[in-house]
Amino acid sequence: MPVSGLARAQQKMTEAGVPQRAIDVFTSFYAQLEGGATGMIAEADVEPLTDLERATDLETDEAGSEAVAATAVIKLNGGLGTSMGMDRAKSLLRVRGDLTFLDIIVGQVQHVRRVHGVRLPLLFMNSFRTHDDTRAALSHHGDLAVDDVPLDFLQNREPKLLAHDLTPVEWPDDPSLEWCPPGHGDLYTALETSGVLRDLLDAGFRYAAVSNSDNLGAAPDPAMMAWFAASGAPYAAEVCRRTPADVKGGHLVVRRDDGRLVLREIAQTPPEDVESASDLTRHRFFHTNNLWFDLEKLAQMLADRSGVLGLPLIRNEKNVDPADPASPRVVQIESAMGAAVEVFDGATAIEVDRSRFLPVKTTRDLLVLRSDVYEVGDDLKVRARAQTPLVDLDRRFYSTIADFDARLPDPPSLAEATSLTVEGDWTFGRGVVVTGEVRLDDDGTARSIPEGTRLG
After folding, report:
1. Among 303, 331, 356, which residue terminates a domain?
2. C-beta separation of 75 from 209 below 8 A
3. If pLDDT is split at 50, 70 and 90, which confidence band does 406 have?
4. Domain match, 369 and 319 both
5. Do residues 351 and 404 both lie within one domain?
6. Is pLDDT above 80 for 331?
7. Angle at 436 between CA 433 and CA 441, to 5 degrees
8. For 214-233, how does the pLDDT look when each residue is reduced to its tens digit (9 = 90+)?
9. What sign results for the dihedral spanned by CA atoms 322, 323, 325, 328?
10. Phi and psi of 321, rounded to 5°?
11. The domain that contains 336 carries what CATH number?
């Protein structure tokens, strides 16, 4: 009798040393996948999220100091920045002068430690691809560790599955491509299987503030810490008002049959519902991927459910080698950490200012962040000092970090810009200033903008 795809995947994970709890979670998702589950959330089954409490109305008081002392900061750090041509942890990318994402994150945490006299642990959830270089970078920041709490823990991994039969793919040319991380929904499993969840609880920490390492807006905020502790909620999501730029992001909705908050990603929206899901007047809030949870309540839920929280499945189909469109199609079983909002009784959400959401997904985002549109204070918080302009760079010449840095070694001034559109191969000299709406057209040749030029 042939061995099933699931059994082969389980065996591969066991032989690779993947923890049994993570294998159990994978097994649960595999059963959904095999049964045809897609994770789709129809518009007819949900209601829009209405007005929420606003973080801008919060104040820090003396009672909040206990919450600050009981909170840990966790950064998701598994991304390589492959969309920008990187082959190491994206958090090691230079973003302000010589400062990397990681440098700024560390500085933000150290500032709160000094001002509030708290331990405030900082932990990074790395993937098997970002583990070594992140650890090496952290070693240059001195004694960051708190008690016996480690600075990082490893995200689990799982086999990619051939799309046509759901068996583990084999790719001898690069066996590492046979594996993938299970999405950031693995956070909860990885916290438990690594022992970090127990380490935090044993060290006296009760709450976790979680965000992506490429979002420098999500700095540790004592007022937010005090709010979450006082709320008594087991889990909370930070949401922002949507703009046309956010229609492809995940947004929170209310499930009609039980009134629970649910995260709906664009990949979970049926084609016929995309227009309704994109309606900014109907669905007004998007999920920032900044979230909070009660460590004690998470530990209890994991114990009650034998490690399987039951997050919704995301079926992600790709080529086994992302750089080779002719390579076999595979399915990656994924889940979103924000989807945990629906499994916690009493989960809530809070509306935050756009300043809490500054992700860098493309070189366009990076250019704005490096420019004088933003400034970095003594507290290492990144603040906007001007309206963010719309930037569009020709992907042929600016999509990778190497090409981007070669053509834009010094970011132009964008503080007075409304928009900058670059078509073609342009190299910017030092001290270029962009004002109003500027468009650079392509004439088929490589051109340079002289030092000190004022455009607009």
Report:
1. 356
2. no
3. very high
4. no
5. no
6. yes
7. 80
8. 999 999 999 999 999 999 99
9. negative
10. -105, 105
11. 3.90.550.10
Q: Which two tokens stand for residue 155?
A: 């995200």
Claim to verify: residue 419 and residue 347 sit in the same structural domain: no
**What is the C-alpha to C-alpha distance for residues 317 and 328, in angstroms, rounded to an integer?**
10
215 secondary structure, DSSP code: B
Among 37, 53, 38, 47, CA closest to 277: 47
pLDDT at position 248 over 90: no
What does pTM read for this prediction? 0.94
Please give the Cα distance from 125 to 255 (Å, whole number): 30
> What pLDDT score does 322 carry?
86
Are both 10 and 81 inside the same structural domain? yes
The answer to whether 330 and 320 have CB atoms below 8 angstroms apart is: yes
Which two three-digit tokens encode residue 55?
């973080």
Q: Are 67 and 205 in contact (CB under 8 A)?
A: no
Tell me the two tokens of residue 245.
Answer: 């730029």
205 has a pLDDT exceeding 90: yes
**Burial label, 11 (beta-carbon count in 10 A; 0-12, 13-18, 19+):** middle
For the chain, the domain total comes to 2
CA 242 to chain centre: 17
Tell which of 312, 335, 356 closes a domain: 356
pLDDT of residue 1: 41
What is the Cα–Cα distance from 290 to 9, expressed in whole angstroms? 32
Q: Which helix (H) or strand (E) holds 138?
A: helix 131-138
Domain span including residue 404: 363-455
